[in-house]
Write a structure and sequence with these properties.
CATH superfamily of the largest domain: Flavodoxin domain
Structural class: alpha/beta
Bound molecules: flavin mononucleotide
Distance between the termini: 25 Å
Number of domains: 2
Number of strands: 12
Radius of gyration: 18 Å
CATH topology of the largest domain: Rossmann fold
Helix content: 25-40%
Strand order of the largest sheet: 2-1-4-6-7-8
Number of helices: 10
Length: 255
């Protein structure tokens, strides 16, 4: 049993290599009972600010896992900042006994930092690193991937920067431009119902936004942009092995 959260498909791609039918966290979160039993249970999720997305934290807090092997695979694009150690701490807080946490470098979908057209060209050795992870899981290896003092310092620096910003700063990250044609792609890829088409135009509703950027990356008009400068506002990303339909199936909260 493997659960996943994804904005642009990297984490879904990894989850699909582990099991043929991974379970979407945004979809399973709609259930009342979050108790799961399996011989092996895992979570694949992206790293946001060195941690897992808010919804993944909530999922861990609310769920009860009956298993004797629990693992997490965290996809990141540039600097994991000790994500494995932070995820271990989260598991401890949630009473989840975790056997294995690893990180895997993939395309970085953080639009302010990276030009997606350039990211797509970089060989991040995903297949090679994924094979190692698959082999570890097959052997039920016990390991939390290494975290250095440099990683910890990077995370502390990030926290210091964040503490000087308003608490809800990321809730106001998205803006819809006049190029929006109201096609509704954004509301179908949103895992938290945070964007809706109203009177033919997309409207972003702050509050529960996961900042996964699924809407911005999937918009066919590139009409969803950020309120802070982007590396390349014309470049957008989706993992090459994952279809738009799969992102919609993973995330769509419309009934
Ligand atoms: C809000 C946000 C924050 C991110 N923070 C980090 C980060 O701290 N370190 C990093 O290396 N990558 C970061 N990334 C990049 C993603 O972790 C990476 O691209 C991930 O593989 C995306 O997974 P997905 O395609 O399943 O959504 C961030 C991306 C977003 C959208």
């Amino acid at each position: 049993m493997v659960f996943y959260f994804t904005g642009t498909g990297n984490s879904l791609y990894i989850a699909k290599q582990i099991e043929r039918e991974p379970i979407s966290i945004p979809q399973i979160m709609q259930r009342e009972c979050l108790e799961f039993t399996a011989e092996r249970i895992g979570i694949v999720a992206p790293v946001y600010g060195h941690e897992v997305p808010t919804m993944v934290k909530e999922f861990l807090r609310k769920s009860v896992f009956y298993t004797n092997y629990f693992y997490m695979i965290l996809t990141y694009g540039n600097r994991h900042g000790g994500a494995a150690e932070l995820a271990k701490k989260l598991c401890d807080e949630c009473g989840v006994s975790v056997n294995y946490i690893n990180v895997i470098l993939m395309a970085d979908n953080w639009l302010p930092g990276f030009d997606m057209d350039e990211q797509k060209k970089i060989d991040k050795k995903v297949e090679e690193n994924m094979d190692k992870i698959l082999s570890d899981l097959a052997k039920r290896k016990n390991m939390i991937s290494e975290v250095t003092d440099i990683d910890r310092a990077a995370h502390q620096q990030f926290l210091d920067r964040m503490s000087q910003m308003p608490a809800d700063v990321w809730q106001h990250l998205l803006r819809v431009t006049e190029n929006c044609v109201g096609c509704g792609t954004c509301e179908k890829v949103c895992p938290s119902s945070s964007i809706h088409v109203v009177d033919g135009k997309a409207v972003h509703i702050p509050g529960n936004c996961q900042t996964c950027l699924a809407c911005a990356h999937a918009c066919p008009q590139k009409a969803i942009q950020l309120t802070i400068p982007e590396a390349n506002p014309d470049a957008r990303y989706r993992n090459e092995h994952i279809s738009l339909h799969e992102i919609m199936e993973s995330n769509c909260q419309l009934s």
